[in-house]
Amino acid sequence: xxxxxxxxxxxxxxxxxxxxxxxxxxxxxxxxxxxxxxxxxxxxxxxxxxxxxxxxxxxxxxxxxxxxxxxxxxxxxxxxxxxxxxxxxxxxxxxxxxxxxxxxxxxxxxxxxxxxxxxxxxxxxxxxxxxxxxxxxxxxxxxxxxxxxxxxxxxxxxxxxxxxxxxxxxxxxxxxxxxxxxxxxxxxxxxxxxxxxxxxxxxxxxxxxxxxxxxxxxxxxxxxxxxxxxxxxxxxxxxxxxxxxxxxxxxxxxxxxxxxxxxxxxxxxxxxxxxxxxxxxxxxxxxxxxxxxxxxxxxxxxxxxx
Amino acid sequence: xxxxxxxxxxxxxxxxxxxxxxxxxxxxxxxxxxxxxxxxxxxxxxxxxxxxxxxxxxxxxxxxxxxxxxxxxxxxxxxxxxxxxxxxxxxxxxxxxxxxxxxxxxxxxxxxxxxxxxxxxxxxxxxxxxxxxxxxxxxxxxxxxxxxxxxxxxxxxxxxxxxxxxxxxxxxxxxxxxxxxxxxxxxxxxxxxxxxxxxxxxxxxxxxxxxxxxxxxxxxxxxxxxxxxxxxxxxxxxxxxxxxxxxxxxxxxxxxxxxxxxxxxxxxxxxxxxxxxxxxxxxxxxxxxxxxxxxxxxxxxxxxxx
Amino acid sequence: xxxxxxxxxxxxxxxxxxxxxxxxxxxxxxxxxxxxxxxxxxxxxxxxxxxxxxxxxxxxxxxxxxxxxxxxxxxxxxxxxxxxxxxxxxxxxxxxxxxxxxxxxxxxxxxxxxxxxxxxxxxxxxxxxxxxxxxxxxxxxxxxxxxxxxxxxxxxxxxxxxxxxxxxxxxxxxxxxxxxxxxxxxxxxxxxxxxxxxxxxxxxxxxxxxxxxxxxxxxxxxxxxxxxxxxxxxxxxxxxxxxxxxxxxxxxxxxxxxxxxxxxxxxxxxxxxxxxxxxxxxxxxxxxxxxxxxxxxxxxxxxxxx
Amino acid sequence: xxxxxxxxxxxxxxxxxxxxxxxxxxxxxxxxxxxxxxxxxxxxxxxxxxxxxxxxxxxxxxxxxxxxxxxxxxxxxxxxxxxxxxxxxxxxxxxxxxxxxxxxxxxxxxxxxxxxxxxxxxxxxxxxxxxxxxxxxxxxxxxxxxxxxxxxxxxxxxxxxxxxxxxxxxxxxxxxxxxxxxxxxxxxxxxxxxxxxxxxxxxxxxxxxxxxxxxxxxxxxxxxxxxxxxxxxxxxxxxxxxxxxxxxxxxxxxxxxxxxxxxxxxxxxxxxxxxxxxxxxxxxxxxxxxxxxxxxxxxxxxxxxx
Lengths: 306, 306, 306, 306
Fold this sequence. Notes:
The structure is a homotetramer. Chain A is an alpha/beta fold. Chain A folds into two domains: 2-58 and 227-291, Rossmann fold (3-Layer(aba) Sandwich), CATH 3.40.50; 60-222, Rossmann fold (3-Layer(aba) Sandwich), CATH 3.40.50. Chain A contains twelve helices and twelve strands. An eight-stranded mixed beta sheet of chain A has the order 6-5-4-7-8-11-10-9, with helices on one face. In chain A, strand 5, helix 6 (120-128) and strand 6 form a beta-alpha-beta unit. The radius of gyration of chain A is 22 Å and the shape is globular. The two termini of chain A are 31 Å apart. The B-C interface holds B 67-68, 70-71, 74-75, 78-79, 82-87, 89, 105, 108-110, 142, 224-230, 275-277 and C 67-68, 70-71, 74-75, 78-79, 82-87, 89, 105, 108-110, 142, 224-230, 275-277.
């Protein structure tokens, strides 16, 4: 079996030892990128073993993204810059789970947060949650902090960086290091000054400085730490997915990419509830029948959004 | 075509005029109950025309449930009781979209909110959002307000109601009028006293009173009003679904229940953004290619949870 | 003794029956205006009896203003207009206790709130609490809701009202009916249309409408109700002030205006704690000595701000 | 002139060089303790020069306490323990400015916060802000994090520490190192294990551990940093107080302790507004007259609480 994070092990085995790859009982993949690569393999007919996409399980998504990033954005900014959040104008590019977490945390501490989005549904959510939805161009000259969490590339270009105001903090909470075009800042007229681990001042000829964190890499990994509780959720999910693929009767999983069965997602959650002294209510027989549910779950249809 | 809310028109036509039912070009259904009945028809092979479940479109779900109930719970409680929210101990049964909305609103106004849940995933969300997850039995004697939003029946029984403290407000934000067992209160030893439209005091022999709103029916409908913005979202979604079913080339929709195509869900959202002066960012060609997306959407996989 | 609200009884007695006025044992005054008039009497040497300013007691200030208005602004807007708060752009003029309450409530429900202020300290508080501090002129064309809570007059003039956008809601949470220059709207080219109790549309020749609540009078009184809990706090404070003035040994209070003794303020608070099942911690002898406090209070110096 | 923080310089000069002390033009003191000592000197008639209490200026109080601690509690806990805040049960002892800041921040990040108080007014504020007011005894066995901010001593005793649950984090945001009776933990049966700078595990014979930060000293100083913005506010206030005492005409300040004149407090605030691009509204002549205010301030009576 393969427990992968990014798809490199999967692709290495497939390329180097295709025979052995075909004998793999199952693949469990936990990253966005790895999952993307699995779906591509599947499309092109090269995925010859069952694979489980645990990246999109509910508990994993919410804990690795929404709940964990809600805290790590604060931690990363404080550890590196000691900035005061109150009253700061912050732009958050992308209002997915990570963007939602960052926005909520910073708003809760008195920052004035705006959001950019490409997806009208997420944009409408931002409105309802009390954030202005703007284009980066409109606010680039006035913001104090710029945070990317889009999963996209070149969201912040040199042209934007040129227009940021003196002292603006720039960081990436999204994926890999492509969201901010940091390479475009490696030009002779700009001076890079390392002021502390993971913190660089980039100085324009007129004296303007921006504060770049982790050279545009992920600050939640570079400048913060992952709480053990989040690690526990992720590891439990991976372990259960491995067990499921290993124990599943022949034919349950074919040569395709699967989401974690909802019942296991619920099981991961239930294992972590005692930590909060949370007490679940049980359905009576009568209620279960009324709802058409098994008393032990799963409790929701697959398309349920939580 | 049928535009239905609850499934009564659909079932009436099916029963009374089965021949005419078979000529229907499509059904658009917007309620939980109606959708449930459609899936049952489909399972039993009796659904002979395509149907669209708009109840589970993102915009409809969030606006009719999360965002709208977040406001209507406050409105319903104020209009009927003038209760002050600050410091009140509130129990919310059910942490789905409606429960999430109610909890957030009441917490925001200084109430101390606890939650009951049957689903461990929703329970873990409640923990992360700062709510204690308890059983009704544990807090029944201390709460000031009890709100049901479970979609279930007999969540609050006579035995619970007997133990509520004097002056407790009881109301239902869930579905139909089954969540609170109001019928169990129609016994000779209890006195019902109507104090105002939609507000009744139920008086125990020892003088204890509870304040029952709308006789256990939905307070968001009985004691509040639906903002025109929410009506606009819902009506737009229904109209687009009707147009889609009407215009779809033969074969796109079979005799089954469909979710609204994501692109139309996004279109509904985009039509409502100008209301907030929200400005969407557009993908560059390069970015669209990088993400593997069409620049016009849809922007998310079907299983995305928002 | 005189229990006054606004100062009318006090001034009437002083003018009509000056002899009887001199025999009054004490005056308790609970309004801003009445207190203002008392201080003027005192300055001009006409205050011949002790008076107690209960308007500025902590519990009264916070409950009548901050906590009560936090809820009544929502109530007043919903009962009159059914407006959805999420995503709305709201301007709140004045960031005193009332403005703080209104801002917090509306932000909590997803509105995007800006603030105007004349006092740099309150303005800085608004920044730290996450609100943009602007001038009315800067945002007058884009806001959806305009709320005054300044205690000042003509904060919103005809010139502002002319520039508001179509559909803007205008209301007053401040004092009397002077904050919005409603009189300036009584001109022939504007049409007033009463759409419901306390709600008028004012229509410009080009068809633009603004929605004026309670003709510019206080919406927290006209369009909402005061929770019994707030009434209890206020009434208790007044009663204790009367008792104090009546029982005080000769010489404790002279011909001047006094704030409620802090110990009585604390006593009012302590009487209302059981309502929330709140349990106070008691100082040990050792701790009281360390802090230089009496174990029964008062617990704070007079200049403490809470 | 003396610029003091804690009163040591003042008392040293007074004791060692009393003649020189009498020639001092003024003292500016910024700490609670130093102010306390000044008031004691004044009471006992030993204060022979004017002193200014800048600790109780509005901007200093709010920024050093409320706004700064709101951020530093998060920073201190994250840097030392990487704890996840979501769902954690936190007890905050003391609901003064520091306690208010800590509670707000942790609640905003999904912690379930309770509060202890000795003062019924602050306790009622905690209720209205949505926190349960409890005694430490009632929750000592269930909390995950215990934070003191009382200004008192021995608020957390050995007896409490014995009953905390395994893994509980204990820290002090109050004053000096007396709030938690750390000395009582220096007994042979307990093992102290340093796990990292400022973090010690204290291990009971049954294996239970508590996590003590900074050995009970102030974590906002030991485990976090003070934002430069807060330093700027404080330093500006001190400098202005020195200038005021130096320039004041003879007789304005006598041998007593004074609060910073409100106009200077407002001036400090106004100097920091441009940082947030905040735009103050100016009173018209007519409005200033109506309010009985000078257009340049001060804008509030001395007893105003902000």
